Amino acid sequence: MEHFFNQVYAWVARIPAGKVLTYGQIARLLGRPRSARVVGWALRAAPDHLKLPCHRVVDRQGGLAPEEAFGGAWRQRMLLEGEDVPFQGNGRVDLNAANWHPEQE
DNA sequence: CGCGTGACGTCTC
DNA sequence: CGAGACGCCACGC
Question: Which distant-in-sequence residues (6+ apart) come within 8 Å of A105 by Cβ?
């Protein structure tokens, strides 16, 4: 539980600026390919003092978090654009260019 | 110990 | 190509 959450936080904290990870991707990195939901849950429960770049975590289609998170999806988009994260123009992150592959690091 | 729930994912229609 | 249904896993009650 906290171990799982901690792992999620660890990966999120490692995401370089300008790159993004998907929930499912993180879940796989943790050895739980079907725990994408739990990943999102972990971020939901992520304490602010960890200062995690949770705005760099998107869904499989590059979609941003719901409005209720971040105090507005526009906020997340603004942060991403501020890091030169490419958008597709439809409000989604261009995963083809911004998706981070930790295995390559 | 069982039930409901959710920042997701994949398959179908 | 958009919307809906089901599946998954951890957690709180």
Answer: none
DSSP state of A20: B
Q: Has A63 been annotated as catalytic? A: no
Contacts 24+ apart (CB under 8 A), A34-38: A35/A4, A38/A4
State the pLDDT confidence band at A40, using cuts at 50, 70 and 90: very high
Q: C-alpha dihedral over A77, A71, A50, A105, to 10 degrees?
A: -20
Which of helix, strand or coil describes residue A45? coil
Q: Which residue has the tokens 């390559």?
A: A104
Nucleotides of B under 7 A from a protein CB: 6-10
Predicted confidence (pLDDT) per residue in A49-67, tens digit: 999 999 999 999 999 988 8
